[in-house]
Specification:
By secondary structure, this protein is of the alpha/beta class. It has one domain: 2,3-Dihydroxybiphenyl 1,2-Dioxygenase, domain 1. It is built from four helices and eight strands; from the N terminus they run βαβββαβαβββα. A four-stranded mixed sheet has the order 1-4-3-2, with helices on one face. A four-stranded mixed sheet has the order 5-8-7-6, with helices on one face. A hairpin with a 5-residue loop joins strand 7 and strand 8. Helix 1 packs antiparallel against helix 3. The protein is elongated and about 65 Å long.
Length: 148
């Protein structure tokens, strides 16, 4: 069976605030949301330049918890964009926290990391050169070699 699509599906404590942040930080556009009579958002979808991101609020009764509840996240979302410096600045201005400053990396990308107000980590980068997997491995290995 072929995979048709793959979506990131985030859990947040406050979906309305998250949708607002993603609009301000990344230019996301809300497609729709499904809200329970209690006000809890069971499902929402936003568009990031043709890429759908899904989200819901917490469902503790189903074991669905946000990074805020866990006080950690094992997942990083990577946004590959035209201008990482501009988007990182925009995300921080919108309320994100800079976790790792922008820098050029051995694998041919300039990137930095922002944590959104809901606990999700975003690696934001753009290409600075094309690097083959072999060259990438050579550079990666060199990072672990003792300085002479």
């Amino acid at each position: 069976m072929a995979v048709q699509e793959l979506y990131a599906y985030l859990c947040v404590r406050d979906a309305a605030a998250a949708i607002d942040f993603y609009a301000r930080a990344f230019g996301a556009r809300e497609l729709f949301r499904l809200t329970e009579p209690s006000g809890r958002v069971g499902h929402a979808e936003i568009d990031l330049d043709g890429h759908v991101l899904m989200l819901s609020e917490e469902y503790p009764e189903l074991g669905v918890r946000s990074p805020e509840h866990l006080d950690a996240t094992p997942v990083t979302l990577h946004l590959h964009v035209e201008d990482a410096d501009a988007l990182v600045a925009r995300a921080v201005a919108a309320g994100g926290t800079l976790e790792r400053r922008l820098q050029d990396h051995f694998y041919g990308e300039r990137s930095g990391t922002v944590r959104d107000p809901f606990g999700h980590r975003w690696l934001i980068g753009h290409a600075i050169e094309t690097v083959t997997p072999e060259e990438m491995q050579r550079r990666y290995t060199a990072l672990f070699e003792p300085a002479s």
